[in-house]
Each structure stands twice: as C-alpha cells, then as structure tokens.
Amino acid sequence: MKKLLTTLALACIASGAFANEVYFDTISTKKASRVHGSYIGVFGGGAHSQTANFRESLSGAKLQDDDGWLAGIEFGYEFEILPVLTAFTEAEFTFMSTPLDGVASGIEYRSDFRSVNAIFNFGVQLDLDDERHDVGDFWSNFKPFAGVGVGGAWTRSSNRKGFVDDRPVIGGDNDNDLAWAYQVFAGVEYAFSDYVSIYGEWRRMIIGDIGDGLIDDPEFDLWAIGMKFKY
C-alpha cells in the first residue's frame, strides 16, 4: 500500500510539472507568434501629386494638383527589438496611376502617369500587448508604426503634350523610364488577433527622372488602407 501511494504521488508531481511545462510553452509560443513572424499584406488607396522640377523647354512649370489611385501587395517579417517595440522588413510592389500636369506662364504640359514600384521597406512599430493589463484590451491592439523605403520604379508617361507659348514641343508621344524610388511612411495598425489586422497609412514617395529627363524627382502623397495576414 505504501508503495502504491508513493507511486501515485510521484505520478501527480510529474503530471503537474508536465502541465506547467505545456502551459508555459503555450504562452511562450503565443508571444513568439505575435512578435516574430512572416506576413503578407494587401492595400489600396489614393495618390496626390505634390511637387516636381521641370527642365529644358518646360523649365519654370509648376506641378498641378492631381489625384489618382494605387494598389499593392507586401511580403514582410517582423521581430521584437524591445519589450514594447518591434521592427519589420518588407518587400512591397505597388501600381500607381495619376495625371501629371504642369503649367506656368506660357508653358503647359499634360500627361497620364503610371508606375510599377518595387521597394524594400524597414520600419519600427509600437506593440503594447505586454502592457495590456495597464492600457486595456482595446488600446493594446493599436500599433502605430513608421519607416523608410528605397527601390526602383518602372514608369510610363503616355499622351504627353507640351506647349511653350502655344508652340508644341511634345506632341502626344509616350515615354518609358526606369528610375529610383524613395519613400517615408507612417500609420496605425489594429490587430484583431495575432494573425489578422487592418491598417491605414500615409506615405511620401519620390521618383527619379521621368519623361525623357524633362521632369525631375516628382513627389506624391499617398494614402492606403490594407489588411495583413500573419503566418
């Protein structure tokens, strides 16, 4: 009988230790899935032209306010760098379409502008999940972020028409270019779970020389709404 009781006691201790190990492993795995992992995101939004430098025959023209649209997909990985801060790297592919017009005294330029952008981004994100007991469930799901990106853009300027003192200098032709692209961005993500979230962001994108070198460094304000799926 004594041997039986001893065996049962040892079995209870072992099962308890195993249960604790499983419990802590579950917590650790859940945290790891939240702060480390790959994800895919899809997004869409609007584009607004800001500034550009016009050169040669178009020198002196000012970029007009024009609105367009964009859509894209991103593949990324995020990892913890501090208890309340994560970092992420991602490859982003974006299509943007907008008019690109410039005018000045005696100068007029019109075109339809499209670009396919491949950009590598790096950013940081505030993650308050470990502070959930202090800030509450709702606010801990908000994750503001900011970052920078650099890459390339394939651009197409179509239906280009340019006039200087009513004299045509560009007559409805098209131009394709490869150029550098840079951007800064900031936004807020809201996590529904460790695996699904939505986000909204603003970005400023600069593209290099386009239009046979007649337009230098056009800048665009972009806004996007998207979803991320972590796996």
Written overview of the protein:
This protein is α+β, with helices and mostly antiparallel strands and 231 residues long. Helix content is 18%, strand content 63%. It has an 8-stranded antiparallel beta barrel. Strands 2-11 form a two-stranded antiparallel sheet.
Quick summary:
With 231 residues, this protein is an alpha+beta fold. The protein is built from 3 helices and 12 strands.
Largest sheet: 8 strands, antiparallel, barrel
Along the chain, the helix and strand elements come as: HEEEEEEEHHEEEEE
Q: Any idea what the radius of gyration is? A: 26 Å
Q: Please give the alpha-carbon distance between the first and last residues.
A: 53 Å
| Percentage beta strand | over 45%
Q: Biggest sheet: strands side by side, in what order? A: 1-4-5-7-8-9-10-12
Helix content: 10-25%
Shape: elongated
